[in-house]
Amino acid sequence: MLTIRRDTVVYAMSPENAPAARAQSGDTVVFETMDCFGGQIACPSDKLGALDWTRINPATGPLFVEGAEAGDTLKVEILQIDLAEQAAMVEAPGEGITGLMADAENTKILPVQDGQVRFNDRLSLPLCPMIGVIGTAPETGAVPTGTPDSHGGNMDCRRIGAGTTLYLPVNVPGALLAMGDLHAVMGDGEVCVCGAEIAGAVTVRVTVVKGQPLPLPFLVTQEHAMAISSAEGLDAAAEQTTLRMRSFLMEQVKLPAHEAGMLLSLAGDLRICQAVDPNKTCRMELPLGILAQLGYAFP
Length: 299
Prior knowledge:
The chain is mostly beta strands. It has helices spanning 234-251, 257-267, 288-293; strands at 2-4, 9-10, 12-13, 21-23, 28-33, 59-65, 73-83, 86-91, 106-113, 116-120, 123-126, 130-135, 143-144, 152-153, 164-169, 175-183, 197-198, 200-209, 218-220, 224-231, 269-274, 280-287. The protein is globular and about 55 Å long.
């Protein structure tokens, strides 16, 4: 099995990035990842303000997928996420939403053991591993790994975990897939600017789907289908992801326009993924059972 080591990273998604490895469509690949701090926080005395910011949000890769051409879709099946033994998180003035009221920098180290993340002496939280940064190269330019956009990137969608399938756009030959910024657990919004940031390894299967039959990025979990959109503000992200799901229902599921909108208002759930990055991210969730009743199957 192909493994891309965690010391092979990029800090921007770009068509200029040299491939770290190559894979065939249908191959299984392991991405070893650093945490979003680049391993710079190991104890409570390590503070956000003292970090080397050129090493923030490393994404392992990129992976060149043979046969992927501009205009295609890259299907990424997330098979397994393995995590390190401890996570880290910070809160600091001016960072995120809670940072608007914070008066000092604080760092917390969170042990991970027996399926739990230990928050403090009184509280442990169930482990819920997810990928914060995952994306392909944009058509032109370089997008920092900390910024989400139409190529994916730092979407911080807590539904992107093991057992899910993420569909991403192919904008350049080979797609150039990269990922990192794992979380042991994170709530919707990521309100203090981070989750339980942790190193680990992600095992995925990559498959080229010809054409783009879905509004991308698009996520399928065991229970829901989700359009994901990022924009400068939450209102724009929410509107964009809702209208993309509406278009999907019209174009792929073949619902009339008015029924597509009505169905989303009845059964769709509009949720915030993260509200703290340079672009904000929202998702529109629709139960898979509804799509099954309508006779739709995903590629």
